[in-house]
Amino acid sequence: MNAISKYFQLDELHTNVRTEVLAGFTTFISMSYILFVNPNVLGAAGMNKGAVFSASALAAAFGCLMMGIYAKYPIAVAPDLGINAFFAYSVVIGMGVKWQTAIAGVFVASIIFILITIFKLREMIINAIPSDLKYAISSGIGFFIAFLGLHQGGLIIANKSTVVGLGSFTSPMNWLTIVGLVATSILLILNVPGAIFVGMVISTVVGLVFGLIPMPHHLISAAPSLAPTFGVAVKHIGDINTLQLWVVVFTFLLVTFFDTAGTLVGLAQQAGFMKNNRMPRVGRALMSDSSAMLVGSVMGTSPIGAFVESSAGIAVGGRSGLTAVVTGIMFIVGMFFSPLLTVITDQVTAPALIIVGVMMAQNLKHIHWEHMEVAIPSFLVVLGMPLTYSISDGMALGFILYPITMIAAKKGKEVNWVMYLLFFVFIGFLWILEVK
């Protein structure tokens, strides 16, 4: 025990093993919904849900252990909710790309991710893209995820007259979504630890009691096989042979990069780690998440990122890497509860998607809305993602307009050359989608 305290510097951080274990468990409870949501999202792309379940758990465990042991931060990582939606609904379903090719794109993006981390190019990219657009990206993903949850939960449906409309309130399954959303909202407002997870449990119990969800035959079983997805990414690297697919790889890289970077900085500020506006050991933290992304792609899951739910563990006193280590161990334990997948329906996971969207939308407050040259492209990014049902299309709208509005405001010289390059990249991207 003394060795553990010494390695994780618990005394210096004014914490102890008991507090760190509690924090790690709290973080896991807060983010464990990803084990059930991710298979549902990627399952829509044709991937084997059981294999995705195991891949998600193992990739999250690896990332958490790396973050805890190597970077020594109480920050957990797992498959990112925003990027898995882009993977399934934009790339596979929207563009018609096979999931095998898409997962190969994640693998290639993770290699690039590691390389730019090693050569410290991430700082250059961060400085190139203005903060307003960074916040717009994460906020837009939040709106996209929430819209996705509302649709899957039956609360928003297609309507020929008005494009979209309100779902039926006579459907019992739709009411299951409403019950989950109300319960989760109340729990969050009351600051109940693991509110999202508890809300899912409430929805599941209600569904089982009223016969809306079939009762599982058992709760515990061996972890599902990884065979349907393991190594597929490596085998299909050669499929990435068009400009369109390289733009997809770039989008995986870009969105994962900024979502993770923003989350890391935000959590570091919450825990009091920031020194002179810099995050100590940030290189190790970034290497941990990029390595987890590589491992996850090989196993068969969408990109990995730092989870904002880590704030729950930090809130109860987690300050060292031991918190993340405990969370990682819990993900391994969670692999043996795969039978619960049968009771985690779209209506059960929909409230989680909506609430996470609310959390991500909070970044809107950081955008300088009083300056129209950044407000307009930021707005198009945020609004474009849910309305085009595509994260990449929403990004394209804002990134194309940004250099134009800045030039109009006579601030063209303030635009980094990388943004001018992205202007042409996204024009090409939209042209490819048009002629596809």
What's this entry about, in short?
This protein has 436 residues and is mainly α. The protein has helices spanning 2-7, 17-31, 34-43, 49-71, 81-94, 99-118, 122-128, 131-152, 172-189, 195-209, 232-235, 243-271, 282-299, 310-315, 321-334, 346-361, 372-388, 391-408, 417-435, and strands at residues 77-79, 156-159, 163-166, 304-306.
The helix/strand order is HHHHEHHHHEEHHHHHEHHHHHH
Query: In this structure, how is the largest beta sheet organized?
Result: 2 strands, antiparallel
Q: End-to-end span in angstroms? A: 60 Å
Q: What's the rounded overall pLDDT mean?
A: 89
* Strand portion: under 5%
Percent range of helical residues: 55-70%
- Total DSSP helices: 19
Give me the Rg, rounded.
Answer: 21 Å
Largest sheet strand order: 1-4
- Described by the principal axes of the CA atoms, the overall outline is globular
Keywords summarizing the entry:
436 residues, mainly alpha, two-stranded antiparallel sheet
What can you tell me about this protein's structure?
Pfam families: Xan_ur_permease. GO terms for molecular function: purine nucleobase transmembrane transporter activity. This protein is mostly helical and 436 residues long. The protein has one domain (11-220, 228-360). Helix content is 67%, strand content 3%. The chain is built from 19 helices and four strands. Strands 1-4 form a two-stranded antiparallel ribbon. It has a two-stranded antiparallel sheet with strand order 2-3. Strand 2 and strand 3 (163-166) form a beta hairpin. The longest helix has 29 residues, at 243-271. The chain is globular. 54% of the residues are buried.
